[in-house]
Amino acid sequence: MPRFLHTADWQIGRYFNRFDTDNSSALADARYGAIERLAQLAVEYNCDAVLVAGDVFDAQTVSDRCIRRTFNATSGFKGPWVMLPGNHDAALAESVWTRAQRINAVPSNVHLALQSGVIELPQQKIAVLAAPLTQRHTYEDLTAPFDSISTPPQWLRVGLAHGSVQGVLAEDIDATNPIAADRSASAALDYLALGDWHGLKEINERTWYSGTPEPERFRNNQPGFALLVTVSEPGALPQVEALETARYHWHQWQEKLVVETDIDELLKRLDELPESSVLDLKLEGSITLAGEQRLADALSRAEARYRSVTYDRSRLLLAPTEEDLAGLQASGYVGDVLEQLQTRQSGAEAQTARDALAILASLLLEARKEEHP
Amino acid sequence: MKLESVRVEQFKRFKKPFLLNGLSGGINVISGPNEAGKSTLVRAIRAAFFERHRSKSAEDLRPWGDSSAAPAIELVFHHNGQKWQLNKSFLQRKRCDLSIQGTTYSGEEAEEKLAQLLGYQFPKKGASKEEHWGIPGLLWVEQGSGQNIEQAVVYAGDHLQSALSSLVSEVVSEGGDGLIHTVRQQLGELLTAGGVPRGEYKQLLADELPGQQELDALESRIDQYQNQVDRLAKVAHEFHKIDREQPWVKVRQALAEAQERYRHIESLQGQQQTLNQALTSVEQRAALLQRNKQQVQADGKQLQQREQEHNTAQQALNDVQASAAGLHAALEQCQRQYRDALEVERQAGLLETRQRLEHSSARAKTQLQQLSERKSRAAELQEALGESRTLTARHQISKAAVDRLRTTQRQLDDARLRSQAIATRIEWQLEAGQQIELGQDTLPHQGEQLLLSSTRLRIAGVGEFTITPGGDDLARCQRQLEQLQLALGEQLQALGVADLAAAEHTLVAQERAQADVHRLLELLQSLVPGGLASLDSDYQALSAELERNCAEKEALVPATTLAKGLPALAQAQDLRSDAENRLSAAEKRSSEHEKALLAASHRYQNADHEWHTLRASLNSEQRQQEVTQLNSDLTAVEQEQARQQERLKQMLAQIAAARPELVQQDIQRLGASADQLEQAQRGRELELKELRVRLEIWGAEGLEQQRGRCLAELEQNRRRCQQLQRRAEALQLLLQLLTEKRQALTQRLQAPLQKHLNHYVTVLFPDAQLEVDSQLLPGRFTRDGETGQMAELSFGAREQMGLISRLAYADLLKEAGKPTLIILDDSLVHSDSVRLDSMKRILFDAAQRHQILLFTCHPDNWQDMGSETINLEALKARAPL
Question: Are residues B733 and A356, on separate chains, in Cβ contact within 8 Å?
């Protein structure tokens, strides 16, 4: 029973600007780990082939080390890999692919679909109809020729393309590299493996986006999967199973804190996250000094525990309570300043006022601690 | 607050216990000379409050050279009705005990109590410094620092506010100044005092530009890389297309056809070449014949020329020959003339010799005659000489006798004259026909007569007259006259002469004959100097010469044989020379003519020979035949030449019709096109290679990955930068608010402080004003309409102002119920006596409210402070406690 693994959008060589160097390189490294896991899954599920639907590389000019590591990571699975150039790694006259070939980085079991046409896997009786991007952007449907390509009878006809299925994805998706939604039907494909959309998405029962195997953004569209596609025989409906491949899980929370219990809730959720989390927190509302203290402690713990924690507290106002103020012992004009900063948090230089307030509070607390250790 | 007593032991100068007690609540003047321990006491009070008892920095409190000492201080003072007693010891025995109205505290707790009471703080570690001294730093004036009020006020800042808070009914912030200090410090880590980023912040900002530049450079290179990739695709596409089409093949075919056409034209051109050569050969032959013909014509001309030359030579010869006879005649004539002239010259020579001899003979004869004349003359002279000598002998008369005679004569004459003078004179003039007689004589009709004696005169017809002269001398004169006449007669006789004249005549004749003798002797001498003998020998020699001449003349050709009219010898010689010259010229001409004749003859013979030779040659029969043949050959060749030219013309027309230059251009064009096409393709191939190599190299750099890294770094830098900026802004805001608030607070204390300050200033300067600024510092000072800052005053004035400011602060503190103890260590030493007096009034006034300890080494200056001066020396001299 023919079975293959459908994956896409590896984006090898991507840098993560928003993180510091440590996290950035860890996340970049994780992308090679994803390839290794794919190979492992292919072996585990006894797959006939692994089809990669474009954007293997994030850019044309990545380092040779990057190229070699990518192909090295496929070594776990000795069966055929078919790799399709996408918009990031289009098969241009000179491309990451020609470079990979030139430096002899491509193992013999990896097939590069650098030209539009069929890649035949006779042993597996799978004909892969490939529609590689040979320019950075095209405005024609490169899968159109699939309709007229014939393949050996009794072989699986599997399409491999990279682009946007027309009329299905949100409109803000770039209209370049269009793909007809009914291509699987018109070209009599058993399955059409697509790339470009980084989340897992079913277009129809024969047409799927696998999404990227390792998340690289906070958009919550089910990234981090590969599709295990089993077709009992040519023409049969494929069975598609999503296999989780993500090493890191990306979370972006937007929380509004109003009452003390909101903080409790947030801290609880924070504690429950798995360690392999990449968290981005945007906070708004207001917080007492005590709450701020708890939050700061919790974030500090989280930063140490999780892969990455970034947060934006610029819209979270500090609202010291009477109790807070008493605790600070901000007598005299210092108390005045504290009060003034508090009100200024909603003014023109809210951010600065908030920061100044936080600094003042922390200094006062420190002073208190020194006095009463 | 009132300090009661100070007791020290093992403390610096005081090894033994020393007690200062009995201090009053007002002013206490404590005096002592230098090194008596005034400063030690001040130090003791400071140490008791400021230094932690555990401080390791209290080494200076030990007496010199006593390392085992435990410096100890005991202070007793009252405050708010409570008695405070502090016992503090350092180093060897670290203790601090404080009892407040019976309640005891110890260690740091005790120290904190004191700090709180007086308003100062302890250093975190080490010795206590100015900045820790707080309010006491303001009220306890160290020696020589009375004028430095600003810093003391700043250090007292917080404590002052805290202490004075009750005055402004305001909650004063505790630790506010510390907070400001911390905020300023933290801001200082980010920004300089001028607000310029520094440290990490500065570095981050500085890094941004190079980061951005690196990024831009990468972007630009990526852009180039992509362009090259596109170029690669385009060139590769073209290359493969052209490679399939091979457009140069078609062009090469066309080229081959054009080349074939050109080869045909080239064969025509070959034929043309042959024709050209044939024509050339015919033309050459024609030219040769033409030259031969010209030669024949030239030969004819030469014959004529030679004939002419022959004639000319003959004519010349004839001319030369013709002139020969004339020349010969002329020569002969010249020869003849020469011979004639030669003869004339000879004869003239002879004639001249003869004439010379004749002339010589004539001269000799003349000389002979002269000689004979001289001989005869000499004989005459000789004779005359004899006569003269005879004459001389005859006339022998002496000259002296003559002279005597003459004298006698004269005396006689004189006597006569005298007689005449005495005589009577008769003068007469007779009329015609009348006659008179005197004596015997008849008188002429006119005359005179002297009468010496009586004389008769008779006149015919009339009668006779006797005239007798008168005088007595007449007789004596008569007698003298007679004597003299007698003498004269005797002398004349002696001399043999008749009278004196004869005598004189005889004398003259004698003298003349003597002169003649002399003269004749001289004449003779001049005539024959050598005497008569030499005259004879000359005569003989001359005669001989004359004989010789005659003989010679006899030997000569007789004159009759010579030609008549001969010229003089010189003239004959000139004539002969002329004839000789003429003969030479004639001979020369004759010789030249001979040579000319010979030359003309030669020329003539040559010309004649050449002419005859050529004529013979040209007139030969063979020659005539050759000329005929030449003319016929020439005609034939010219016809051949015309034929060849026609054929060549036709050939050229044929070639021109084929347009060889166009065909050649076609070949060029097509060849170049094919080359160019292939070249372009090769260029593409090369460019492809180059592009691939370049892209390969660039690709190895992983440009986009580098960009990713660069961008990440830049972003991170920016994020950090933003954080720092936010923090800096926040700190700035905080600092600004804090300082503003603090400022506002201090300003509220300004007025009461000003009030107290005015109180003192007016004592010192009645119309002056010292303003307290917003920092509670004495600032602007106005006096006599002039305004300045306190800092600009003299040292003495500043010290005075400093002191009254401190007193004003003390008043303020007192008002707020705070303890005030004022300690002055040798203050106001720079004040003049007037000012010092004013200051004393001020101090005395202040002492009404505050306890003042005034340490001085000039107790005399402070005798009028209304209190007893405490003398340290005296105290020390007291029995030990």
Answer: yes
A358:B741 CB<8 A: no
Q: Which of B703, B713, B729 sits opposite A61 (nearest CB)?
A: B703
Closest CA to B753 of B811, B803, B698, B796: B811
CATH number, span A3-244: 3.60.21.10
Minimum Cα–Cα distance from B741: chain A residue? A333
For residue B165, what is the nearest residue in chain A, using CA coordinates? A332
pLDDT of residue A5: 94
Give the fold, CATH level 3, of B2-163+793-877: Rossmann fold (3.40.50)
Tell me: pLDDT of B212 over 80.
Answer: yes
Separation CA B29–CA B6 (nearest Å): 15
How many Å lie between the alpha carbon of A331 and the closest alpha carbon of chain B?
A: 5
Helices (H), B191-245: 199-245
Domain coordinates in residue numbering, chain B = 2-163+793-877, 251-322+604-665, 424-468
Q: How far is A367 from chain B (nearest CA, A)?
A: 9
Could you report the per-residue pLDDT of B297-354, keeping only the tens digit for each? 898 899 899 999 999 999 999 988 888 888 888 889 998 999 988 888 888 888 888 8
Q: Which residues of B touch A58 (CB under 8 A)?
A: 704, 708
Bridge partners of residue B140, in order along the sequence: B823
- Verify whether the Cβ–Cβ distance B222 to A18 is below 8 Å: no
What does the DSSP 8-state code read for residue A227? E
pLDDT in tens, B86-135: 999 888 888 899 999 889 998 888 888 888 888 888 887 778 888 888 88
pLDDT tens, position by position, B221-238: 989 988 988 899 899 999
* Encoded tokens for B803: 């002191």
Q: What is the CATH number of domain B251-322+604-665?
A: 1.10.287
Residues of chain B in contact with residue A61, where contact means CB-CB under 8 angstroms, are 222, 225, 698-699, 701-705
- Mean pLDDT of all residues in B609-617: 87
B716/A17 CB distance under 8 A: yes
Q: Which residues contact B295 (CB under 8 A, 6 or more apart)?
A: none
Cβ within 8 Å, pair B233-A92: yes
Q: Is B181 on the interface with A (CB under 8 A)?
A: no
Sequence ranges of the domains in chain A: 3-244, 249-371
Q: Measured between CB atoms, does B228 come within 8 Å of chain A? A: yes
Q: Compare all CA atoms of chain B with the CA of A330 and give the residue at the minimum distance.
A: B173
Give A77's pLDDT tier (boundaries 50, 70, 90).
very high
Q: How confident is the model at residue A32 (pLDDT cuts 50, 70, 90)?
A: very high
Residue A81, Ramachandran bin (φ over 0: left; ψ between -120 and 50: alpha; else beta): beta
Q: Distance between CA atoms of A138 and A163, rounded to whole angstroms? A: 9
For B564-592, what is each residue's pLDDT tens digit?
A: 777 888 888 888 899 889 889 988 988 89
Which 44-73 residues of chain A touch chain B by CB within 8 A? 58-64, 66
- Mean pLDDT (chain B) is 84
**What pLDDT digit, counting tens, does each position of B749-769 carry?**
778 888 888 888 888 888 888
Check CB contact under 8 Å for B726 and A102.
Answer: no
The residues, any chain, with a CB within 8 Å of residue B763's CB and separated by 6 or more, are B838, B841, B842, B845
Q: Per-residue pLDDT averaged across B37-41, rounded? A: 85
- Residue B881: the pLDDT is 52
Position B519 scores a pLDDT of 84
ipTM of the complex: 0.81
Please tell me the predicted confidence (pLDDT) of residue B171: 46
Q: Hey, are the CB atoms on B734 and A66 less than 8 Å from each other?
A: no
Smallest Cα distance from A16 to chain B, Å: 7
Residue of B nearest to A19 (CA): B716
Q: What is the 3-state secondary structure (H, E, C) of B388-427?
A: HHHHHHHCCCCHHHHHHHHHHHHHHHHHHHHHHHHCEEEE
Partner-chain residue, chosen from A16, A355, A363, that has the shortest CB–CB distance to B182: A363
- C-alpha to C-alpha distance for A228 and A215, rounded to whole angstroms: 18
